[in-house]
Amino acid sequence: MHRYTLSVLEPRPVSHLCVMRGFGLNWAIAREPATFWVEFVDALGQVAHAEEVDVHVERLKLLTPPSFPAGFPLVRNRLSIQPLAVASQPNDH
């Protein structure tokens, strides 16, 4: 009789394999809606079920003024418009 070792992987997202994309991922304005998409991927590289994502925003201090992409939502009556970087990773459980 032979004994084999078996590893079972759950079909849960693995953060470093997930793909995030979208306009709102790199360009956001405080108190304005911004969206981006997350493709959840499991340890085998297969699409996994979505899970809750914790998102936080960090202000970038730029050495030169940004050149905003076409379609960037310019908001009037603001003292300044600065791009914000969205940093997020799906929860690894």
How many distinct folded domains? Answer: 1
- Range of strand content: 15-25%
Sequence of strands across the biggest β-sheet: 1-2
Helix content: under 10%
The sequence of SSEs as H and E is EHEEE
Radius of gyration of CA atoms, rounded to a whole number:
19 Å
Oligomeric status: single chain
Q: What is the mean pLDDT?
A: 76
Structural class of the helix and strand makeup?
A: mainly beta
Plain-language structure description:
The protein has 93 residues and is mostly beta strands. It has one domain. It has one helix at 23-26; strands at 19-21, 37-39, 53-59, 84-90. A two-stranded antiparallel sheet has the order 1-2. It has a two-stranded antiparallel ribbon with strand order 3-4. The chain starts with 18 loop residues before the first strand and ends with a strand.
How do the strands and helices of this protein lay out in sequence?
Elements lengths: L18 E3 L1 H4 L10 E3 L13 E7 L24 E7 L3
Antiparallel strand pairs: 1-2, 3-4
Which terms summarize this structure?
93 residues; mainly beta; two-stranded antiparallel sheet; 1 helix; 22% strand
Quick overview:
The chain is 4% helix and 22% strand.
